[in-house]
Amino acid sequence: MKKLFIILSATLLIACNTSKEKNKVGKNTSNEMISENNKEKINDTVTYEDSVMLLGKANRKGFQMDAFKDWFNTGYEDYKVDTETAEKLKPLLKDVDITVFMGTWCEDSQRETPHFYKILDAANFDESKLTLITVSEEKTTPQGYEEGKNITNVPTIIFFKNDKELGRIVEYPIESLEKDMFAILSGKDYKHAYAE
């Protein structure tokens, strides 16, 4: 038994050292869950610096892991939703799908993602129409979810209607999340922070 423990300890030590050499992203730490509908892994974590990060498809439950719940819950609870604009968003969000690319390692993502979820809750958004993709510092996923999406900064929140992109908020809102969402969804001329 002692021999087995030593072998396992050595294996873990090698795996951790190897993972830090690969852009500080490591091996799966087995916190993932399997989506009931499509059997995809969600809320998959990998080692990152002295903790972990989510990598790949995720959902709100992933933010309740110990590594993320403090910033997520505090950001959610402390955010004051512009309820007037959230009410205006309700009918506009009905036929919309949203894809969010964010990094649990990224301060901008840590700030904006909880706020975004609180706005969606205030607008009674159907969360089954939200796809959350968590990326590495290189803005990539092992599955390639970012391919063809032009993800340069995170968070990037993309709004779709009938599979056509209506617009996106990149890294931070221009006016506020609610007002930027309203501008995009109501068809106003909107340019995100990095638009040319």
Blueprint of the fold:
Layout: H1 2-21, E1 25-28, E2 33-34, E3 41-42, E4 45-48, E5 51-54, E6 56-58, H2 69-78, H3 83-92, E7 97-102, H4 107-122, E8 130-134, E9 156-161, E10 164-170, H5 177-185
Parallel strand pairs: 7-8
Antiparallel strand pairs: 1-4, 2-3, 4-5, 6-8, 7-9, 9-10
Q: How does this model look, in words?
A:
There is one protein chain. The protein has 196 residues and is α+β, with helices and mostly antiparallel strands. The protein has a single domain, classed as Glutaredoxin, CATH 3.40.30.10. 33% of the residues lie in helices and 22% in strands. It contains five helices and ten strands, in the order αββββββααβαβββα. The strands form three sheets. A five-stranded mixed β-sheet has the order 6-8-7-9-10, with helices on one face. A three-stranded antiparallel β-sheet has the order 1-4-5. A two-stranded antiparallel sheet has the order 2-3. A hairpin with a 2-residue loop joins β4 (45-48) and β5. α2 (69-78) packs across α4 (107-122) and α3 (83-92) packs parallel to α5 (177-185). It starts with a helix and ends in an 11-residue tail after the last helix. Residues 1-32 have low confidence and may be disordered.
Count of helical stretches:
5
Q: What would you say the CATH architecture is?
A: 3-Layer(aba) Sandwich
Q: Judging from the principal axes of the Cα atoms, what is the shape?
A: globular
User: How much strand content do the residues show?
Assistant: 15-25%
